[in-house]
Amino acid sequence: MLTTATGKFPLKEYRLRQGGREWTVLHTDAVLTPADESRFLGDQENPRPYGVALWPAAIVLAHEVASRADQLRGKRILELGAGTGLPGIVGASLGGGADGGSLEGGREEFWDV
User: Fold this and answer.
1) Helix residue spans in the chain (DSSP H)
2) How many domains does the chain have?
3) Fewer Cβ in 10 A, N or C end of the chain?
Protein backbone atom coordinates (compact mmCIF):
# COMPACT_ATOMS: atom_id res chain seq x y z
CA MET A 1 0.00 0.00 0.00
CA LEU A 2 1.34 3.43 -0.94
CA THR A 3 0.33 6.29 1.36
CA THR A 4 0.35 9.77 -0.20
CA ALA A 5 -1.05 13.14 0.80
CA THR A 6 -4.12 12.34 -1.33
CA GLY A 7 -4.79 8.88 0.09
CA LYS A 8 -3.71 5.24 0.14
CA PHE A 9 -3.30 3.28 -3.08
CA PRO A 10 -2.70 -0.44 -3.61
CA LEU A 11 0.53 -1.25 -5.44
CA LYS A 12 0.91 -3.47 -8.50
CA GLU A 13 4.08 -5.02 -9.89
CA TYR A 14 5.50 -4.73 -13.41
CA ARG A 15 8.33 -7.02 -14.55
CA LEU A 16 10.58 -6.20 -17.47
CA ARG A 17 12.57 -9.08 -18.95
CA GLN A 18 15.27 -8.44 -21.52
CA GLY A 19 18.55 -10.13 -22.40
CA GLY A 20 18.36 -12.68 -19.59
CA ARG A 21 17.81 -10.00 -16.93
CA GLU A 22 14.71 -8.97 -15.03
CA TRP A 23 13.65 -5.74 -13.32
CA THR A 24 10.61 -5.10 -11.15
CA VAL A 25 8.92 -1.81 -10.39
CA LEU A 26 5.92 -1.12 -8.16
CA HIS A 27 3.23 1.29 -9.36
CA THR A 28 -0.35 2.23 -8.52
CA ASP A 29 -1.67 1.84 -12.05
CA ALA A 30 -0.46 1.26 -15.60
CA VAL A 31 -1.69 3.87 -18.04
CA LEU A 32 -1.65 1.95 -21.32
CA THR A 33 -4.74 3.09 -23.23
CA PRO A 34 -6.63 6.35 -23.72
CA ALA A 35 -9.34 4.92 -21.44
CA ASP A 36 -6.72 4.25 -18.71
CA GLU A 37 -5.45 7.81 -19.08
CA SER A 38 -8.94 9.30 -18.83
CA ARG A 39 -9.66 7.22 -15.72
CA PHE A 40 -6.32 8.13 -14.11
CA LEU A 41 -6.51 11.86 -14.86
CA GLY A 42 -10.25 12.13 -14.28
CA ASP A 43 -10.29 10.79 -10.73
CA GLN A 44 -10.88 14.10 -8.95
CA GLU A 45 -11.86 12.44 -5.65
CA ASN A 46 -8.59 10.50 -5.34
CA PRO A 47 -6.03 12.28 -7.54
CA ARG A 48 -2.74 10.37 -7.69
CA PRO A 49 0.65 11.91 -8.39
CA TYR A 50 1.83 11.23 -11.96
CA GLY A 51 4.98 9.59 -10.64
CA VAL A 52 3.18 6.60 -9.17
CA ALA A 53 1.72 5.46 -12.50
CA LEU A 54 3.55 3.33 -15.03
CA TRP A 55 3.33 5.19 -18.35
CA PRO A 56 3.80 3.58 -21.80
CA ALA A 57 6.85 5.73 -22.57
CA ALA A 58 8.63 4.37 -19.47
CA ILE A 59 8.00 0.78 -20.55
CA VAL A 60 9.20 1.37 -24.11
CA LEU A 61 12.25 3.39 -23.04
CA ALA A 62 13.23 0.80 -20.41
CA HIS A 63 13.12 -1.95 -23.06
CA GLU A 64 15.21 0.22 -25.39
CA VAL A 65 17.78 0.96 -22.68
CA ALA A 66 18.01 -2.74 -21.80
CA SER A 67 18.49 -3.71 -25.45
CA ARG A 68 21.43 -1.25 -25.73
CA ALA A 69 23.26 -2.34 -22.59
CA ASP A 70 26.66 -2.54 -24.30
CA GLN A 71 26.33 0.94 -25.81
CA LEU A 72 25.23 2.55 -22.54
CA ARG A 73 27.64 0.90 -20.10
CA GLY A 74 29.67 3.62 -18.37
CA LYS A 75 27.48 6.43 -19.73
CA ARG A 76 25.13 8.71 -17.76
CA ILE A 77 21.41 8.65 -18.46
CA LEU A 78 19.18 11.64 -17.79
CA GLU A 79 15.54 10.78 -17.29
CA LEU A 80 13.13 13.70 -16.95
CA GLY A 81 9.52 13.17 -15.98
CA ALA A 82 10.83 10.01 -14.39
CA GLY A 83 7.54 8.71 -13.00
CA THR A 84 8.41 5.33 -11.52
CA GLY A 85 12.01 5.77 -12.74
CA LEU A 86 12.03 2.43 -14.59
CA PRO A 87 14.31 3.46 -17.52
CA GLY A 88 16.85 5.05 -15.17
CA ILE A 89 16.81 2.03 -12.85
CA VAL A 90 17.42 -0.29 -15.80
CA GLY A 91 20.24 1.90 -17.13
CA ALA A 92 21.94 2.18 -13.75
CA SER A 93 21.74 -1.58 -13.17
CA LEU A 94 23.46 -2.18 -16.53
CA GLY A 95 26.55 -0.25 -15.52
CA GLY A 96 25.53 3.29 -16.42
CA GLY A 97 24.75 6.14 -14.11
CA ALA A 98 21.30 7.67 -13.98
CA ASP A 99 19.92 11.04 -13.02
CA GLY A 100 16.22 11.74 -13.01
CA GLY A 101 13.73 14.31 -12.07
CA SER A 102 10.14 15.33 -12.18
CA LEU A 103 7.90 18.21 -11.29
CA GLU A 104 5.01 17.19 -9.07
CA GLY A 105 2.59 19.60 -7.48
CA GLY A 106 4.88 22.56 -8.24
CA ARG A 107 7.79 20.80 -6.49
CA GLU A 108 10.90 19.63 -8.33
CA GLU A 109 12.33 16.30 -7.28
CA PHE A 110 15.66 14.92 -8.51
CA TRP A 111 17.52 11.69 -7.91
CA ASP A 112 20.92 10.24 -8.78
CA VAL A 113 21.90 6.57 -9.04
Assistant:
1) 34-42, 56-67, 69-72, 86-93
2) 1
3) N
